[in-house]
Design goal:
The complex is a heterodimer of chains A (142) and B (792). Chain A is 73% helix and 0% strand. Chain A is built from 6 helices and no strands. Chain A is flat. With 792 residues, chain B is mainly α. Among the domains of chain B are: 61 residues, no CATH class; 74 residues; 49 residues. Helices cover 74% and strands 1% of the residues of chain B. Chain B contains 31 helices and 2 strands. Chain B has a two-stranded antiparallel ribbon with strand order 1-2. Chain B is elongated and about 110 Å long. The chains are: A mainly alpha (142), B mainly alpha (792). At the A-B interface, α2, α4 and α6 of A face α27, α30 and α31 of B. Chain B: It comes from Alkalitalea saponilacus. Chain B: GO terms for molecular function: antiporter activity. Chain B: InterPro entries: CPA3_Na-H_Antiporter_A, MrpA_C/MbhD, MrpA_C/MbhE, ND/Mrp_TM, Proton_antipo_N.
Chain lengths: 142, 792
């Protein structure tokens, strides 16, 4: 049975929660937040969507399958780790862009931010991969 | 000039990785286009060879490296140039050769990728100036050869052969790694140039014998020396171009190279001499002996390679300037004729479809140019003038005669092996190319005219090169004296001549040839004896023995794994807790101070107390819960309670994470709860009492630890460092976050990998089940459709 109200709520919640999660991701450097938390929060949006619309719908929404998300997240982390070598620093040291004060008051851009983005993407991939797999096995609304 | 070499080695790897993208554009021309790269390396090295002085080495430093002390620096000296020339030169010819030979194979991009990477690894190996870099390339050659030997991976035989080669050579690689670390610790440097310049010799160090045995193990496994020789005949499962490359210039010769390279550091002692002479001597004779009884041309050649490698190792073991010189010359000789002969085997295979020397007959008719090249190569193998092989063999004899103190055993072995080599050479050529009325006439699938020039070029060029160097071996004198200077540390004048005059060595050569011809004439009875011997030997078949050892090892490992990984979650927890308590209580007894803090406890806040009360209540509820759902919910309350506790004490990030993780766990629980088996209390009273005692003990011990943690006062507090540097170094005010993604990002990386593995575990556990479900659905829908059609 379709539940129109729930369906609308799921879509709205997903959109809102994605914005919140990106906000959390970016503010994480100065205030509570960060890639891991933002990743979990974003995935709750997708989970609700999956519960309402089914696992195939959420897979379609994600475009690439969840394993590719995990892989891309890890790849971003790897890039963030290896990038400093180009500047002649040891791997995993942080490199920051010098930005005008108007921007750097809110967010600093550098390899740690890239690292955090990688964590964010792979956490989404990991949680959804587990949940979707379980849903598929249990034929839970698929 | 040399700097370009750095670039070229890097380019080999880059091109190797990019082959899958290049191949669709170039199609069948890939091999020819790729061959430009080794050709350029060859030319660069040739120019270096002509310009380098006899006491000069060039160090190419690249400041780039993975870790400090592991810079990718290269060194050019006589030894590395000689090896590099053969690797790049033969590599060039092999690529040309395989562009036709491999034309009908599937997965050609794979082939070219592996081959180019192999070439790059081998080139890097001989030029590396850093021991660790040498090791990295050494392992890369093992891995690349694993893929190349098992290229026809649909055949059980080649899979087995490649696995065997990998296990044996990777074992040697581990030994080498260990030896390198030991050497680095003892001497304080990993640079070969520093080791040579400071003339460090480990001979008197207490760990010398350990280092020596590890290096020797690495070398004899790689170079297929007795008793590890058996992987090499197996490795001929590889496509012929690979065999040609593996045997002539790369892979198996890496062990010989390693011995020569590390000679200044560990060579020249009594143990070194006797071990090398022992293994080299046995291998030399055994290889030559076993090659007589074979029918397959490639197999014959494989055994002669083993014999030749044994000769080189033996010569290094004899340890006189003459013997080292002979070893290097013999390496060149062997590379030239063996590369040629393997390519000839490939040509014969392509044109007739067979490699059995007793079935092929009168091939001169169809492939005359190849036959002439084969004649030259075989003459070189037998060590007859005017080929370079003659020069090489004369040097070997000379070195064996002069071997101090052991000449009486080395010389007969050497002469015996050479007699057999001569006999094998004549037999091979006679059976293949001379027309014999008693054998059936061979049908040609292709005649030589139908082959492209690139296919024949390799064999012919190598044969001509062997002839040319044999006529004027002076060309090699300068580079040889350079090589010897860096191996043995003193320079000597080197004279290479085809004609030595009428002396002891020449007499031996004539004797060898006469005996060889005699064996050839009586080859039938001799072959019978050798076949009988091989049959007897097969009872102690080393490859089978090796496989059964490996199988037993796997059996043992799986047995132990089953014992440890029994699959009962409760026993895992039990083990974990009991071990933890045991370890903690050991530590506890060491601190005997008063547990309670002197200043007393801080005043208890009422909301914390309330929280703790609720959490404790829910623990008790969870323990005695009658349904699963209530137990789960109670556990959830505890989780959220802990999150609240974090919040009260100001750990906002922790609290958020705790809440979110609890939520996700709840969702997963709710999803699966319907499918779990009925909730029941199955454990007996005794086991419940046991579990209760353990859990109470764990709780008590954790409380004790928390109390005792107050007593430990570290000198510098880590958290102060983070507080001070969070904003200045990491540009962040949130300390937790700067720790996570900046100061300790390695930990975070590790955690990410762990949870990725968890996701992969869940996925792979359920994947088959999902597939089965889908299949069932498809079948059901198929049946439905079928029934519908029936109705229509």
């Amino acid at each position: 049975m379709r539940n129109l109200i729930l369906e609308k709520i799921a879509v709205l919640y997903l959109r809102a929660i994605l914005i919140v999660s990106v906000w959390l991701l970016l503010r994480g450097h100065n205030e509570p937040g960060g890639g891991f938390i933002a990743g979990i929060i974003a995935s709750t949006g997708f989970i609700l969507y999956a519960i309402v619309y089914g696992s195939t719908a959420v897979e379609k929404l994600l475009r690439y399958n969840t394993r590719n998300w995990i892989g891309s997240g890890l790849l971003i982390i790897l890039i963030a780790v290896v990038l400093p070598i180009i500047w002649g620093k040891p791997a995993m040291s942080s490199i920051w862009m010098t930005l005008p004060d108007s921007i750097s008051a809110y967010v600093h851009i550098g390899t740690p931010l890239l690292f955090d983005i990688g964590v964010y993407v792979s956490v989404i991939g990991i949680i959804l991969s587990i949940i979707i797999t379980i849903m598929d096995v249990l034929k839970w609304n698929s | 000039m040399g700097n370009i070499l750095l670039l070229l080695i890097g380019l080999l790897f880059l091109v190797g990785v990019l082959v899958p993208f290049i191949y669709p554009v170039l199609k069948k021309r890939t091999g020819v286009v790729l061959s430009v790269l080794p050709l350029v390396i060859f030319i660069v090295l040739l120019l270096e060879l002509l310009s380098i002085g006899s006491r000069e080495s060039i160090i190419l430093d690249s400041t780039w490296g993975f870790l400090s002390g592991m810079e990718f620096s290269y060194r050019l000296d006589g030894l590395s140039i000689i090896f590099g020339l053969l690797i790049s030169g033969i590599g060039f010819l092999i690529l040309l050769f395989s562009s036709y030979y491999m034309a009908k194979y599937d997965r050609q991009p794979h082939f070219y990728t592996y081959l180019t990477l192999f070439m790059g690894a081998m080139t890097g190996l001989v030029f590396a100036d850093n021991l660790f870099v040498l090791f990295v390339f050494w392992e890369l050659t093992s891995v690349a050869s694993f893929f190349l030997i098992g290229f026809d991976h649909h055949l059980e035989k080649s899979r087995q052969a490649s696995l065997q080669a990998l296990l044996i050579t990777a074992f040697g690689g581990l030994c080498l790694l260990f030896a390198i670390i030991l050497t680095g610790n003892i001497t304080g440097t990993y640079r070969i140039s520093e080791l040579i310049n400071l003339s460090i010799h480990l001979g008197n160090h207490p760990h010398y014998y350990l280092v020596l045995s590890l290096v020797l193990l690495a070398a004899i496994t790689k170079s297929a020396q007795f008793p590890f020789h058996f992987w090499l005949p197996g490795a001929m499962q590889a496509p012929t171009p690979i065999s040609a490359y593996l045997h002539s210039a790369t892979m198996v010769n890496a062990g010989v190279f390693l011995l020569l390279r590390l000679y200044p550091v560990i060579g020249g002692t009594m143990a070194w001499k006797y071990l090398l002479i022992l293994t080299g001597g046995i291998t030399m004779f055994l290889g030559a002996f076993l090659s007589m009884g074979q029918r397959d041309l490639k197999r014959i050649l494989a055994f002669t390679t083993i014999s030749a490698l044994g000769t080189m190792v033996l010569l290094i073991g004899i340890d006189t300037p003459n013997s080292i010189k002979a070893a290097i010359v013999f390496f060149i000789v062997h590379g030239l004729y063996k590369g040629g002969l393997f390519m000839i085997a490939g040509i014969i295979d392509k044109s007739t479809g067979s490699r059995d020397i007793y079935k092929l007959n009168g091939l001169f008719r169809g492939i005359p140019v190849t036959a002439i090249a084969a004649l030259l190569a075989v003459i070189s193998m037998a060590g007859l003038p005017p080929m370079l092989g003659f020069v090489g063999k004369e040097l070997v004899y000379e070195a064996q005669i002069q071997a101090p103190g052991i000449s009486w055993i080395v010389l007969p072995l050497g002469v015996g092996a050479n007699i057999l080599m001569v006999a094998v050479s004549i037999t091979v050529f006679y059976e293949l190319f001379v027309f014999n009325k008693s054998k059936p006439v061979t049908e040609f699938k292709y005649h030589e005219r139908q082959f492209p020039v690139t296919f024949l070029a390799g064999a012919v060029l190598l044969a001509i090169l062997g002839l040319g160097l044999g006529m004027s071996p002076r060309f090699l004198e300068n580079i040889l004296s350079n090589a010897l200077y860096y191996i043995q540390g003193h320079s000597m004048e080197i004279k290479l001549r085809l004609w030595h005059g009428f002396n002891q060595v020449l007499m031996l050569s004539i004797f060898t040839i006469l005996c060889g011809v005699a064996i050839f004439i009586f080859r039938k009875p001799v072959n019978r004896v050798i076949s009988a011997f091989i049959n007897w030997l097969d009872r102690y078949h080393l490859p089978t023995l090796f496989t059964s050892v490996i199988n037993y090892y796997i059996y043992l490992a799986s047995k132990n794994t089953r014992r440890i990984q029994h699959g009962y979650h409760r026993f895992y927890l039990l083990t974990f807790f009991v071990v933890t308590i045991a370890l903690i209580s050991l530590q506890q007894f060491r601190i005997t101070e008063v547990i309670l803090p002197e200043s007393g406890f801080s005043p208890v806040k009422w909301h914390v107390a309330l929280l703790l009360f609720i959490a404790s209540l829910s623990v008790i509820f969870a323990v005695f819960a009658r349904t699963r759902l209530s137990a789960i919910l109670a556990m959830g309350v505890i989780g959220y309670g802990i999150g609240m506790l974090y919040l009260f004490y100001g750990a906002v990030d922790l609290a958020i994470t705790q809440f979110l993780v609890e939520t996700i766990i709840m969702i997963v629980f709710v999803m699966v709860i319907y499918y779990l088996p009925r909730f029941a209390i199955l454990s007996s009273k005794a086991s419940r009492v046991r579990d209760g005692i353990i859990s109470i003990a764990v709780g008590a011990f954790v409380t004790l630890i928390v109390l005792k943690a107050q007593l430990i006062k570290p000198d510098s507090r880590v958290s102060d460092f983070f507080v001070e540097n969070s904003y200045t170094l990491a540009h962040g005010k949130n300390i937790i976050n700067t720790i996570l993604i900046d100061f300790r990002s390695l930990d975070t990386l590790g955690e990410m990998i762990v949870i990725t593995m968890a996701a992969a575990g869940v996925f792979s556990l359920f994947r088959f089940q999902i597939q089965r479900l889908k299949k069932k659905e498809e079948e059901a829908s198929h049946v439905e459709r079928f029934e519908k059609q029936g109705d229509d």
